[in-house]
């Protein structure tokens, strides 16, 4: 069964939940209706989605508007990241992924700090620095917010 194409009303924000984002065109859901983006007509939406690191279950808002030259412009905004139900296997994996991403950020920050201070980023320097940053960040932040891009963090 083929899904219908997503349609937009001019200047009307539309909230869409990502159902499948493995391959373009993505499948989305608005209310109980599922649809697919149009491969070519909605390619501008894909360009705006790429830096957002879209994942299954995320909710975006798309607003289409007509330009003075008659072209259609899309404004895409992230509304909500998907959060699995607590105490499920999916939640445990999600939390683990967030912890791993945070440790990677700490390692990258430690390397950057070494280079900024004209030090060679060796394992003897980077390891303890990254571990210390990681421990302090886990004490200070809710680990649930550590999923996704650094731009998504609440500070």
Separation of the first and last Cα atoms: 44 Å
> Order of strands in the sheet with the most strands?
3-2-1-4-5
DSSP helix fraction: 25-40%
Q: What count of helical segments does DSSP give?
A: 3
Radius of gyration from the CA trace? 20 Å
Oligomer: single chain
**Which class do the helix and strand fractions yield?**
alpha+beta
Strand content is: 15-25%
**How do the helices and strands follow one another from N- to C-terminus?**
EEEHEEHH
> Roughly what is the average pLDDT, rounded to an integer?
87
The total of beta strands comes to 5
Give the overall form.
Answer: elongated
Q: Can you summarize the main beta sheet? A: 5 strands, antiparallel
The low-confidence runs, each spanning 5 or more residues with pLDDT under 50, are none
Please tell me about this protein's structure.
This protein has 155 residues and is α+β, with helices and mostly antiparallel strands. It is 34% helix and 21% strand. The chain is built from 3 helices and 5 strands; from the N terminus they run βββαββαα. A 5-stranded antiparallel beta sheet has the order 3-2-1-4-5, covered by helices on one side.
């Amino acid at each position: 069964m083929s899904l219908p194409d997503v349609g937009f009303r001019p200047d009307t924000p539309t909230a869409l939940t990502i159902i499948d984002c493995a391959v373009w065109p993505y499948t989305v859901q608005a209310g109980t209706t599922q649809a697919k983006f149009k491969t070519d007509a909605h390619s501008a939406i894909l360009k705006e989605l790429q830096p957002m690191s879209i994942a299954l279950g995320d909710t975006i808002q798309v607003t289409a508007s007509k330009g003075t030259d008659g072209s259609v412009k899309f404004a895409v905004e992230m509304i909500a990241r998907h959060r699995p139900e607590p105490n499920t296997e999916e939640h445990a994996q999600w939390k683990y992924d967030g912890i791993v991403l945070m440790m990677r950020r700490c390692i990258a920050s430690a390397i950057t700090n070494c280079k900024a201070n004209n030090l060679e980023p060796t394992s003897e320097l980077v390891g303890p620095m990254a571990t210390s940053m990681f421990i302090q960040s886990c004490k200070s932040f809710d680990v649930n917010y550590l999923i996704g891009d650094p731009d998504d963090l609440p500070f």
